[in-house]
Specification:
Among the domains are: 1-128, no CATH class; 409-439. It is globular and about 100 Å long. Strand 26 (385-390) and strand 27 (395-399) form a beta hairpin. The chain is α+β, with helices and mostly antiparallel strands. The protein has helices at 9-13, 209-219, 255-258, 262-265, 326-331, 335-343, 349-354, 411-417, 419-439, and strands spanning 2-6, 22-27, 32-39, 42-51, 54-65, 68-75, 81-87, 91-97, 104-107, 115-117, 122-123, 136-137, 141-145, 154-162, 166-179, 182-196, 229-230, 236-240, 245-252, 282-289, 296-301, 307-312, 317-321, 363-368, 376-382, 385-390, 395-399.
Length: 440
């Protein structure tokens, strides 16, 4: 079932009075839904039907037209199971299981009709890297990325698998590069992120063996929730890895600067075997961790990729932002923080030397604690508002430019808050020292 409900935006942004939802459409599909992908206002629904003892795969593409949503049904080629699908602005990327290719490409038609049949798909890069130690492998996540090179189709591939001791994420960027020997897919970047799985073998109830097994199963880390958030221009993509970590990939063409950085030069995209010449574009990669041990469930970007929302299994929403004004950032620092920055430098010297030419880093701006214990299903930005949708059907709106400023926690603020206690302690210590000196 696909159902769309509407409510005026002003109800969530301007009014304290609630209004009922208005149903726009209620559609019943002919088969089981296994995947949903959204790009802008367009939504793609993947479902499966059985025709003459054969499984057929269909997608329904919803798109806005004259303030209403219309749809197109497309019959996809083949009967191999589709385990992942991603809607792009001009194409569909999907992966099949089993398949000898990492993904398949289907261009979207320029003219949409109620029912279409896709005859074939274009194969992507062949599977050259396998994970023999994996005991469980999850559906791949796919997204198209920006490239300044004309007629280049760039794809980010995010594989997640589990071994007997850890969760592992592998991230790669590939292009359909055209060279002298013809067009083929080439891998530019590859990154791995590994996290150990911990087991708690404590036996709180030794009288029941089944209770011990249940405790062990409950202590095994659940399958990570992998999602991708892509900016409108496709130049920034963020996604969680495993646990409380996430990655940010940002497009940059400052190859002249990156060549001077020893830590980045080895990761540039070489176009010759001697690694003397490089592609004139690069995706700068940074790994972050949120200030919580909770697993990340979802991630979302605003339109210009200056704000990011991350929500966790503990029903917390963390808002990150990118500072465009370094002077404003410096003005917010206290005197104590400035001294700490001078004495204990976190960033390496190379990064501090060239950071003005690199993509801006993400910095925590605020945290939202919802007033309900229901799990969070989705978070969306709208201008200076953020909407948090919970799985119980409730939606809460928050104004981002109206928040309670968090007071910095450092040695100076501690002295200011506890000065009376410190004076009393100093007086007691002084009396003790004086008495000891008298009897010495």
């Amino acid at each position: 079932v696909v159902r769309q409900l509407r409510k005026p935006m002003k109800v969530l942004t301007e009014s304290d009075k609630d209004e009922d939802w208005t149903e726009s459409f209620f559609h019943t599909l002919d088969g089981q839904i296994s995947g949903v992908s959204q790009r802008g206002q367009e939504v793609l629904v993947l479902y499966h039907v059985i025709e003459e003892d054969r499984v057929r795969h269909r997608v329904r593409l919803y798109y806005p037209k004259e303030n209403v949503f219309e749809y197109t049904d497309m019959l996809l080629p083949g009967s191999t199971w589709i385990d992942s699908i991603s809607l792009q602005e001009d194409s569909i990327i999907l992966s099949r299981d089993p398949d000898q290719y990492q993904f398949q490409l289907i261009p979207l038609p320029l003219f949409k009709s109620p029912l279409m049949t896709v005859v074939s798909s274009e194969p992507g890069k062949k599977i050259e890297r396998t994970f023999p130690s994996a005991i469980e492998q999850y559906p791949v996540s796919l997204s198209r990325l920006y490239s300044s090179t004309k007629d280049t189709y760039r794809v980010l591939i995010h594989n997640l698998y589990k071994t007997d001791s850890e969760f592992s994420a592998s991230i790669s960027i590939v292009d359909n590069t055209t060279l002298a020997d013809g067009a083929h897919w080439r891998e530019w970047a590859y990154t791995e992120d590994n996290h150990t799985i911990y087991y708690d073998e404590t036996m709180n109830n030794p009288g029941f063996a089944d209770a011990t097994l249940k405790e062990r199963l409950n202590n095994i880390r659940k399958r990570p929730k992998i999602s991708l958030a892509l900016s409108e221009d496709r130049k920034t993509i963020v996604f969680p890895s495993v646990g409380n970590s996430f990655f940010s990939f940002d497009f940059t063409d400052r190859i002249d600067i990156l060549k001077k950085m020893e830590s980045e030069r080895r990761y540039l995209y070489p176009i010759d075997y001697n690694r003397t010449d490089y592609l004139n574009e690069y995706y700068y990669q940074r790994r972050y961790e949120i200030d919580s041990e909770a697993d990340i469930l979802g991630i979302e970007l605003n339109e210009d990729a200056t704000r990011m929302a991350i929500w966790t299994e503990r029903q917390m929403v963390y808002i990150y932002s990118r500072y465009n004004d370094t002077e404003q950032e410096d003005q917010e620092k206290t005197m104590w923080e400035e001294w700490i920055d001078l004495l204990f430098v976190d960033d390496d010297e190379e990064y501090r030397l060239y950071r003005d030419y690199l993509p801006l880093p993400w910095k925590i701006e605020m945290a939202i604690i919802p007033s309900t214990s229901a799990s969070i299903g989705q978070v969306k930005f709208h201008q200076q508002f953020i909407f948090v949708a919970h799985n119980n059907g409730h939606i809460y709106s928050y104004r981002l430019n109206e928040r309670e400023e968090q007071r910095p926690v450092n040695f100076i603020t501690f002295i200011n808050d506890k000065w009376d206690m410190l004076i009393a302690m100093c007086a007691i210590i002084a009396i003790f020292v004086y008495n000891e000196s008298q009897y010495a």
